Amino acid sequence: MAQLRIALAQTNPTVGDLTANADRLVAWTRDAAERGAHLVVFTEMFLTGYPVEDLVLRTSFVDASIRTLEEVARRLEREGLGDLPVVAGYVDRAGLAPRVGQPKGAPLDAAALLHKGEVVTRTAKHHLPNYGVFDEYRYFVRGDRLPIFRLHGVDVAIAVCEDLWQEGGPVSVVGQAGAGLLVAPNASPYEKEKEDIRLELCARRAREAGCALVYVNQIGGQDELVFDGDSLVVGADGELVARAAQFREELLVVDLDLPVADAEPGTSAYDPGDGSTITVDRMVLSGEPVAPYTPAPARIAERLDLHAEVYSALVLGVRDYVAKNGFQSVILGLSGGIDSALTATIASDAIGPSRVHVALMPSRYSSEHSLADAEELVRRQGITSQVVPIADIVSAYEKEVQLSGLAAENLQARVRGMILMGLSNEYGHLVLTTGNKSELATGYSTLYGDSAGGFAPIKDVPKTMVWDLARWRNAHSAPHFLLQTDRPIPENSIVKEPSAELRPDQRDTDSLPPYEVLDRLLDDYVEKDMGSQELIAAGHDPALVTRVIRLVDLAEYKRRQYPPGPKITPKNFGRDRRLPITNRWRETTG
Ligand SMILES: Nc1ncnc2c1ncn2[C@@H]1O[C@H](COP(=O)(O)OP(=O)(O)OC[C@H]2O[C@@H]([n+]3cccc(C(=O)O)c3)[C@H](O)[C@@H]2O)[C@@H](O)[C@H]1O
Ligand SMILES: Nc1ncnc2c1ncn2[C@@H]1O[C@H](COP(=O)(O)OP(=O)(O)OP(=O)(O)O)[C@@H](O)[C@H]1O
Ligand SMILES: NC(=O)CC[C@H](N)C(=O)O
Question: Which residues form the active site (predicted)?
Answer without folding.
Answer: 44 (proton acceptor), 44 (proton acceptor), 125 (for glutaminase activity), 161 (nucleophile)
